[in-house]
C-alpha cells in the first residue's frame, strides 16, 4: 500500500446521505440523514462524534467504513477517493485499513461461533498468514484486550457484556487497521464496565498508534478519550474543536446544552439547559439552522440559511450568534 494511503487519514468532504422513503400510497420523500458534512481524522488522532439519537452519527459511521455509499460528496482515505475504487480494490485495501466496533456485541457476534473463531474470521477472509500464524495472532489479540486464554473456547452467550465488547474490539483489530470507528461501544454496558472499556480503548490507541472515531450521545464519555469533538445536529456538524476547549467554552448553543444534560461523577458543573420547541423532520429540514426551533439565541437571520463556518484557530462552529 502506498505511503499516501496509510498516512493521510480519513476524511469526509461535503458528504451527504439521503434515503428515499414512501409517503402515503404513491408519494415519496427523502430523509436527509447526513447533510454536507466535512469531517477529518488525522493519523493517530481520536475524534469524538456526538449528538442526540437520530442526528446521523451511525449513518456517517457506516459511510466511513464503506458500508454505506454517500449520495453526494467524497470519502477519502489518504489521497484516494474510496468510492472511486473498484469493489475488489475497496475490499482488498480499504476494508483492511478501516475497522468498526458496533454498538451491540450481542447482535454483531455470531452466537454459534466460539471466541477464537470470531476473532480469527477476518484473518481467514483476507487469507492473512498461515493457519499457525492465525492461531498465534488470535491468542495475541485476546490477551491484548485483557481477556484470559480460557475465554477462547466460549460462546458469546457465556460471556458478560463487557467481555463480549472486548471480543468485538479484538475482532476489529485483527487485521491491524489504521482507523477504528467505534459506534456507541459503551451504550449497552453498566457504568463500571463502561469505564473499563473506555480505558481499554484509550490504552489501545496509545499502544497501537490508532486513529479512532468514537461515536456516542454521552459527550462526557467522548471527552475522556477524544482529542477533538465534532457535534452533530439533524445531519449536520454544528461545531468541532479540541475536546477540552469545547467543554470549557462551547460556541454553539447546542453544544452547551449537550454538556449540561449529562451529569459527571462530580455532579453537574452548571444548571441543566432544557431545550424547548419542536425538532425539525429530517424529511423536510428547514432552510436555515436546524437548531433554530429550539435555540434561545435564535434571530430572524438564523432561519434564512445554514450559516457558513466561523474559524477560530483549530475550532469551527456553524452559528450566526455564537456564545461568548
TrEMBL record:
Residues 15-259 form the ABC transporter domain. InterPro entries: AAA+_ATPase, ABC_transp_ATP-bind, ABC_transporter-like_ATP-bd, ABC_transporter-like_CS, Oligopep_ABC_C, P-loop_NTPase. It comes from the Bacteria. GO terms for molecular function: ATP binding. Keywords: ATP-binding, Nucleotide-binding, Transport. The keyword Nucleotide-binding applies. Belongs to the ABC transporter superfamily. This is ABC transporter ATP-binding protein. It comes from Conexibacter stalactiti.
Amino acid at each position: 500500500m502506498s505511503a499516501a494511503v496509510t498516512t493521510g487519514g480519513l476524511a469526509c468532504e461535503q458528504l451527504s446521505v439521503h434515503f428515499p422513503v414512501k409517503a402515503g400510497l404513491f408519494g415519496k420523500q427523502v430523509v436527509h440523514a447526513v447533510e454536507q458534512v466535512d469531517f477529518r481524522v488525522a493519523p493517530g488522532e481520536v475524534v469524538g462524534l456526538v449528538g442526540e439519537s437520530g442526528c446521523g452519527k451511525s449513518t456517517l459511521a457506516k459511510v466511513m467504513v464503506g458500508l454505506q455509499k454517500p449520495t453526494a460528496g467524497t470519502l477519502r482515505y489518504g489521497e484516494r477517493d474510496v468510492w472511486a475504487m473498484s469493489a475488489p480494490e475497496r475490499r482488498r485495501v480499504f476494508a483492511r485499513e478501516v475497522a468498526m466496533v458496533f454498538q451491540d456485541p450481542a447482535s454483531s457476534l455470531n452466537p454459534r461461533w466460539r471466541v477464537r473463531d470470531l476473532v480469527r474470521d477476518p484473518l481467514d477472509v483476507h487469507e492473512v498468514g498461515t493457519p499457525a500464524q492465525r492461531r498465534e495472532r488470535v491468542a495475541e489479540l485476546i490477551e491484548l484486550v485483557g481477556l484470559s486464554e480460557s475465554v477462547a473456547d466460549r460462546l458469546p452467550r457465556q460471556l458478560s457484556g463487557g467481555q463480549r465488547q472486548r471480543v468485538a474490539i479484538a475482532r476489529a483489530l485483527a487485521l491491524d487497521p489504521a482507523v477504528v470507528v467505534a459506534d456507541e461501544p459503551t451504550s449497552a454496558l453498566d457504568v463500571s464496565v463502561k469505564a473499563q472499556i473506555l480505558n481499554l480503548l484509550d490504552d489501545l490507541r496509545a499502544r497501537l498508534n490508532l486513529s479512532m472515531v468514537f461515536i456516542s450521545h454521552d459527550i462526557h464519555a467522548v471527552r475522556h478519550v477524544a482529542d477533538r469533538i465534532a457535534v452533530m445536529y439533524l445531519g449536520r456538524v454544528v461545531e468541532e474543536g479540541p475536546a477540552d476547549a469545547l467543554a470549557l467554552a462551547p460556541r454553539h448553543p447546542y453544544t452547551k446544552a449537550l454538556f449540561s444534560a449529562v451529569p459527571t461523577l462530580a455532579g453537574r458543573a452548571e444548571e441543566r439547559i432544557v431545550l424547548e420547541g419542536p425538532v425539525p423532520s429530517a424529511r423536510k429540514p428547514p432552510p436555515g439552522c436546524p437548531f433554530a426551533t429550539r435555540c434561545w439565541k435564535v434571530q430572524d437571520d438564523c432561519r434564512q440559511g445554514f450559516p457558513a463556518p466561523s474559524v477560530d484557530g483549530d475550532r469551527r462552529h456553524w452559528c450566526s450568534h455564537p456564545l461568548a
